[in-house]
Every structure is written in C-alpha cells, then in structure tokens.
Write a structure and sequence with these properties.
Elements: H1 8-19, E1 26-28, H2 29-38, H3 43-55, E2 59-64, E3 67-72, H4 74-87, E4 100-105, H5 112-124, E5 128-131, E6 134-137, H6 142-152, E7 158-163, H7 172-178, H8 181-195, H9 201-205, H10 209-223, H11 226-229, H12 244-257, H13 259-270
Length: 272
C-alpha cells in the first residue's frame, strides 16, 4: 500500500511539531504558504488550511504592521507533545506486560464534535473500536484517557476499566476484527518503499537544504499515521507487523540525519 497523499492542515501541524519546538516562536504566514507550495499546495489551499487551524484553536494569528504571523496555541502545544510521545515511542518494546484499557461512552448527539475529537485521539493512543461507544487498547492508558476526557469536558459521559483479557478465551479473533493488522503491515511496507532508499548517508549528503526539508517533512507526515493504525498488540495475542521494525529504523535514521539542513531551510523561509 502506498503512502497516503498528505493534506494541507495535517502538513501545517507536521511543520509546527517538527520545526517549531519552542512554543514562544512565531512564524510568518507568507513563509508558511511558500513552504506548503514547495510541498505541492496552491496559495489558496494553503491559506484556507491556516484559517481553519485558527478556527480550530490550534493557531493564533498575530498582526505585526502589514505582516501576519502565527503562533502555536497552548492546546496545539499539548497535542503536539502528546503526538511526540506516541510517535517516538512507537515500536519500543514494553518493559513488562501491561493491562488493557477499556473505555465506553454515551456522548449525546449535541456533543458530536467532542465525540469525533475523542475518537481520533483514542486512535492515536492505540485504541480500536470494539463496538459503538466502546474502545479497547492493549496498554494501560488510564492516565492519558482521564486527561483526554477532562480536556474535552466529556468525563460525565464516559467510563474506564483497566484489566486483562481472559486467558481461557482466544482473544486474537476479537483483536483481528478491531484492527487491520494485515493492512497495517502493507502500509509499513509502503513507507519503507517510499523512504527506505534515502536512509543511507551518501543519499542524504547530496540533498540541498530545500530537498532535505521536503523529504523530512513528508517523512514525519507519513509516519505520524502509524500511531493511529498500530495498536502495538502483545505478541502472545497477534504477532507484530513484519515490516514495523524496519520502518521505525528508517524513520529515526532519516529524522536525525536531515535535522540540520531541513531546520535551516524552514528558518530561512518562515521565521521573521
């Protein structure tokens, strides 16, 4: 399966998370539009994406004379921190067996926006939907879920349990219906096909700053899908995706090796 086509709002989040680690920094709107243009998006599509991120409360717009700049909001910074925790821990073996987490909710229809946000963030934490309103994860996510429910102000509509599947039943069949492990491995394979050829020092050394920026940004944007898809199930339930280890290795190698030239290009174009 090929790497999916990036979307402009997702790419902006990737840019902020990758190149603006200091929450006090501001970035020039024209520079962001130019960088998105280098990644294949029109000026109109780029400006619409930025406006929508402001409306979602993820970016704050500031005027400095006739120039417009953006700053990461506190909510966006928290989401980026949560994202980093999942992205950079993906594929790391658990130190010890962990209990599973079950969450169920009855969020009313008039709170459908929060319900949608809850679903996406649960997926990012490794949850899968067992049935309507019931989600499971193969890790102890009690702390993260409690914070998430509080952040979305839906604690009153949800419950959480932490435990383990009964050993007397074959839980692999249930897990196989919740998560598409075969399709996940195809995605890992597609990621390796797309980025693996660059994961050598002689290939990255030949890239100029702009090319390094483009490659690293697309790398991060593609890899940040995997926490949404990979539940990191224990091996005694379902074997790990065959291509995961190689994909994780490619990601970390390229992320580090392209860091300096890609950051240099971002700063030259987008920072005031």
């Amino acid at each position: 399966m090929l790497v999916s086509q990036p979307q402009p709002q997702d790419l902006v989040i990737t840019l902020l998370g990758t190149y603006m680690r200091n929450g006090e920094r501001r970035v020039w709107s024209g520079g962001l539009v130019r960088l998105l243009g280098e990644l294949g998006f029109s000026v109109a599509a780029s400006r619409v994406a930025l406006a929508r991120l402001v409306a979602r409360g993820l970016l704050a717009r500031e005027h400095h004379g006739r120039f417009v700049h953006y700053r990461v909001t506190a909510r966006c910074a928290a989401l980026l921190e949560e994202g980093d925790a999942r992205i950079f821990a993906l594929g790391r073996p658990a130190r010890r067996p962990e209990p599973w987490t079950v969450l169920w909710h009855v969020i009313p229809d008039e709170r459908r926006l929060e319900r949608g946000r809850l679903a996406r963030r649960l997926r990012f934490l490794g949850f899968g939907p067992l049935q309507d309103g019931t989600w499971i994860a193969a890790r102890n996510r009690e702390r993260e879920v409690a914070a998430l429910l509080d952040d979305l102000d839906v604690t009153a509509y949800a419950g959480v349990m932490v435990g383990k599947p009964a050993a007397s039943l074959d839980f692999a069949g249930v897990a196989g219906r919740v998560w598409d492990i075969e399709g996940l491995d195809e995605r890992y394979g597609g990621f390796i096909d797309a980025f693996g050829p660059y994961a050598t020092s002689h290939r990255t050394a030949r890239l100029d700053d702009r090319a390094a920026f483009r490659l690293r940004t697309l790398l991060v944007d593609a890899f940040r899908e995997f926490p949404l898809l990979d539940p990191e199930l224990p091996s005694d339930v379902i074997a790990a995706p065959a291509h995961r280890t190689q994909a994780v290795s490619v990601f970390h190698r390229l992320y580090r090796s392209l860091s300096t030239p890609s950051q240099r290009h971002f700063d030259a174009v987008a920072t005031p």
